[in-house]
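Dear support,

I submitted the protein below through the web form. The confirmation email said the job was done, but the results page showed an empty box. After a refresh the structure appeared. I'm attaching both so you can tell me whether what I see now is the final result or a partial one.
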Amino acid sequence: MKIVKHSGSVVEFNRDKLKSSLLKSGASKSVIDEILQTVDNQIYEGITTKKIYKLAFSLLKKSSNATAARYNLRAAIQMLGPAGFFFEKFISRLFLSEGYATKTNLFLQGKCVSHEIDVVIKKYDFIEMVECKFHPRSETNSDVKIPMYILSRFNDLKDRNHSIFSKSDKITGCWIVTNNRFTSDAMDFANCSGLKLLSWDYPPKFSLRKKIDEGQLYPITCLTTLTTAEKDKLMVLDVILAREIIDNAEILEKIGLSPIRIKNVIIEASELCKYLKYEN
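What the results page shows now:
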């Protein structure tokens, strides 16, 4: 059965790939089997991956908002755009969860020119810059030009003193983080040049997807019980992670949610993050 991807390319339908993504959502075996059977019955030659995703998502949501939210993770990260400002905040939260001190959106003077840096992180005596390459479309990958360009910025900054966490900090390392993927040339160049990469599926054991799941760092945009407008309001109020609302009903009141909806949203966030504050 041929299906059409977001990019327009035509590929064979991969049932095992769909099953794997459903397993990662945390859905039960019976729910997954039911969804796969429904998809088998409804797909047709030339159906888009978007329609298959919407069908699976709607069936998951009937079973559990939290599993639907986890299934929705990659799309939820794309909602941290359109320019990627909230993606930078999200990545800052990720490093904070790993014991780093972080600062965002800094202007630092290099040897030749001034640079705007998305995130700067510090652990022990090591200070590193983090450049975030956000793509609003899932099929857009970061090619070799990205690490080549960022390496030149790092080289312009690394041998100078900067006022970041103290008055005389030196940047000793550089990360490039993307919500999508890097091309093989981009990975080869970065690894050869000493740059650290983090993408949706790279490095395989420490990818963005794995870090989010293991740290329960689900973005607020995952939640199915909030509208897009409500998620935008929360992000403007610096609420980036779903877990940040579990003990913070006041912030949901602030954006105009009723007590019933507040309870439902917090239940979903709690189940998503495996911590149940409210009783069902």
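Response: this is the final, complete result; the empty box was a page-load delay. The chain has twelve helices and eight strands.
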